[in-house]
Amino acid sequence: MALATFTGNLGFHEVKRLSLLCFLLCSGLIYSQPDTTFMDQLRSGLVNLPVDSQITELIHYSRNFRSTDSSKSLWVARYAVQLGASAKPEKLSNALLSLGHAHKTISHYDSAIYYYRQVLDLEKEGAPNKNRGNALMGLGSAYAWSGYYEKGITYYQHAADHYKKEGDNISVGKVYTNIGNIYNDSFLHQHSKALEYYQHSLTLFRKEGFPAGNVLLNMAYALKSLHMPDSALMCLREIDSGSVRPYDYVPIKTYAFIIEGDIYADKKEYARSLQLYDKADSMMLGRSMVDQKLLNGKSRAWAYYYSGAYEQAVKTGEEMLSLMDETGNTGEKAAVLQVVGKAYESLGKPMQALSYMNRYIELYGELSKSEALKQVRDLEAQYRMREKDAEIELLHLNNRLAAQQLATRQANQNTLLALIGFLLLGAGTGFYYYRRHIRLKQALLNSEISNLKSRIKALVTQNPEHLDLNLDDINAKLQTPLTPREFEVLQAALSDRNNREIAEQIHVSVNTVKFHLKNIYEKLGVSNRREVVSFVMDK
Questions:
Q1: Architecture of domain 471-538
Q2: pLDDT number for residue 460
Q3: Is residue 503 within 8 Å of residue 510, measured between CB atoms?
Q4: CA-wise closest residue to 96 among 116, 67, 70, 74
C-alpha cells in the first residue's frame, strides 16, 4: 500500500523508470552474480567522472567483453542501465541497447527483446531515434535466433525501412544480409530467396565502397546448396584483403577455404580439397578460432576417409576430439566420432571401431532427445502465449462491454420518457448478441488451446523415429523402388531434421541430401516433407 501511495505521486516516466529498475533487480537474482572485486575496481576507476561519461565508458567495456567474458559484459551493461535510469533519455537508450546486445550474446533472447523494446519506448520520452535502427535489428536477430523466423524478418524489414528514410545504404545492406542469412541457414533453406537479398546487399555495398566479403561468403554457401559449384567458386575467389575489413579478413577467408574444400570434396577431388583445408589451417595458426578449427578438422577427417587414408582420418578425428575436451565445444562431436569409428572399421580394428560407434550412437540419441524436448518446450510456450492472449482478449471484451453499459445508462438519462422503452429494448437486443459474440469467440479460443494441448501430448507420446518402417514394405507399393540410401534419407527426414543435419548424420554433402530427397519425392508422388509423412502413415 505504501508503494502504491509512493508511485501515485510520481509521473508516468518516473514510474516507467522505477519499473525498469525493479526488472533489473529481479533478473539479477536469476543470472550469475558478478565478480564483486572486478565491479568494485570498475566503479572506483570511474567514480570521479560525470555520470554521462561513466555510462559511455561502461558501454565501451561491455562491448569489448562480449567476445571474451560474456558475464562481465552483462553486468557492466546492467550497471550502465542503473546509472542511466537517472540520466538523460539518450544515455539510458544507449545503455539499454548495450544490455540487449549483452543478453543476446549469451542467448537470453527474451531479456534481449525486452530491453530492445525499452529502447523503442524511450522515443516517447524524448530520446533521439538514432538507436531505433539498431533496436529493430536487435529484435530481428533475437527473434530469428530463438526460432521465430517470420517475426525476425518482419523486424528486419522495419529496420530496413528506417535506414532507407535515413539514406543509410550501408545499414540497409547489412539488414538485407541478415534477412538472407535467415533464408540461407534456418530450417527455411530458401537459398534462391537468400541470393536475392545478398545481391541487393552486394549492390549497395559496392555503390558505397563498403567491404562485401561477408556477403560473398554467404552467397557462395547458397550457390553451393543450389548445386551451382562453379558460381560459388567465383564468389569465393573474389574474397581478398580488398573486399573484407581488416579485422574480419582471417575468419572470413578461413571459412572461404573450408567451403571451397567442401565443394571439391563433393566433386570427389579429395587431394585438392585437402590442400584447401591446409590453407584454412595456416590462416588459423596461432589463433584460437575453435569453431573454425573443429569444422575444418571434421571436413578434413571425412576427406581422408573417402580418399582411403584411414590412419590420417583417425589421427585427425582424435585430434579434434581432444580439442573438444579442452574447450568444451562439442558442436561437431557426433560427426567426428562416426568418421573415426568408420576409419577404424576400414583398418580392420573392430574393437576400436565399436567403441567409437557406441559413443556416436549414445551422443546421437542424446541430441535427438534434446531436440524433441526443445520442440515440446516450444509448443508449451506457444500454448502459454495463446492462454495469455485469450485472457487479454476477454479483458478487452469485458472492458468494452462495461463501457457500452455505462454509455447506455448516460444516454438513457437524457432520453425522452416516451422513448425509454424502445431504447431499453434495443440495448437489450444488442447486449444479447454482443454476449453471444463473446461466448462464440471464447469457445473458438478454447478450441484452439485444446488443439495445441493435443499437439503437445502427441509430440511427447509419439516420435516419427519410432515408426516401424521397412524398405521392402514401402517398395512393394511403389512403381520405382527406393534405394537403401534413399530409405536412410527418408527415415532421417521423418525425424524432422533439416538437410544439413541429415547430411551430417549420414556423412554426405547437403547437395547430395537434396538430390536424394528430390528422387524420393518423385518416387512417392509427393512434393514436400509433410506429404511424405502423410504417405508413410497412410501406407
A1: Orthogonal Bundle (1.10)
A2: 36
A3: yes
A4: 116
Exposed/middle/buried for residue 376 (C-beta within 10 Å: 0-12, 13-18, 19+): middle
Mean pLDDT by 10 residues, the chain (539 residues): 41 50 48 68 85 89 82 88 84 89 88 90 72 92 89 94 93 94 79 94 93 92 92 90 82 93 94 94 88 91 94 94 85 87 91 89 66 48 56 69 74 69 71 76 65 46 56 83 88 82 87 89 84 74
Quote the pLDDT of residue 464: 47
| Cell numbers describing residue 67 | 567476445
Contact 276, 258 (CB under 8 A): yes
332 in Cβ contact with 320 (< 8 Å): yes
Instruction: Name the residue with cell 557462395.
Output: 220
Fold of the 12-127 domain: 1.25.40
- Rounded distance between C-alpha atoms, residue 227 and residue 24, angstroms: 49
> Quick one: pLDDT at residue 2?
38
Please identify which residue in the block is written with the cell numbers 550497471. 79
| Residue 514 to residue 507: CA distance in whole angstroms | 13
Q: Match 503437445 to its residue by C-alpha cell.
A: 456
Angle in degrees, CA 67, 68, 69, rounded to 5? 110
Q: How far apart are CA 45 and CA 177, in angstroms?
A: 40
DSSP 3-state of 463: coil
CA distance 512 to 182: 22
Q: What letter does residue 246 receive in the DSSP assignment?
A: G
For 165, counting Cβ atoms within 10 Å of its Cβ (0-12 exposed, 13-18 middle, 19+ buried), the class is exposed
C-alpha cell at 48: 570521479
State the pLDDT at residue 7.
42
Could you identify the residue written with the cell 559449384?
229
Residue ranges of the domains in the chain?
A: 12-127, 349-404+443-462, 471-538
CA–CA dist 185, 87 (Å, integer): 41
Euclidean distance between the first and the last CA atom of the chain, given in angstroms as a whole number: 66
Residue among 172, 153, 265, 151 nearest 215 (CA): 172
* pLDDT at residue 487, rounded to an integer: 87
Q: Which residues of 290-323 are buried (b: 16+ CB within 10 A; e: fewer)?
A: bebbbbbbbbbbbbbbbbebbebbbebbeebbeb
- What is d(CA 115, CA 103) in angstroms, rounded to the nearest whole number? 9
Which segments of 49-146 does DSSP mark as H helices, in order? 51-65, 70-84, 89-105, 109-121, 132-145
Nearby residues of 96 by Cβ (< 8 Å), 6 or more positions away: 81, 84, 115, 116, 118, 119, 122
Spacing of C-alpha 198 from chain mean position: 19
Amino acid at 14: E
